[in-house]
Amino acid sequence: MPKGDTRNDDAVVKNGVTDIPPNSDGELPRATEQVDAWNSEPGNEGRYRQETVFEVPEGEGARGAAYDAERQYSDQNRKTLDPERHQRP
User: Fold this and answer.
1) pTM
2) Which pLDDT does position 5 carry in this prediction?
3) I want to staple 14 with a disulfide (CB 3.0 to 4.6 A). Which of 22, 24, 54, 85 is the partner?
4) What is the pLDDT of residues 5-24, one digit of tens each?
5) SS (H, E, C) the chain
């Protein structure tokens, strides 16, 4: 289960988990959709990029492990998370 984040000038502004496999280029479809939408906003051209941070192996307990990891990663980056873009955890 991939876990990715969205960055602006190397500051994490949002992160999340997905159970959708990465594209052939390694990018996460949902994150790509968000980045493309945000970069299309006036004044944001090229400002945001996505990065796959780590993957939780599939199997029993994977979803819980992924959400625990997301919570920890959010806590580590709390100062740079954009509250309008990142709502939880």
Assistant:
1) 0.74
2) 59
3) 85
4) 566 667 888 888 888 888 89
5) CEEEEEEECCEEEEEEECCCCCCCCCCCHHHHHHHHHHHCCCCCCCCEEEEEEEECCCCCCHHHHHHHHHHHHHHHCCCCCCCCCCCCC
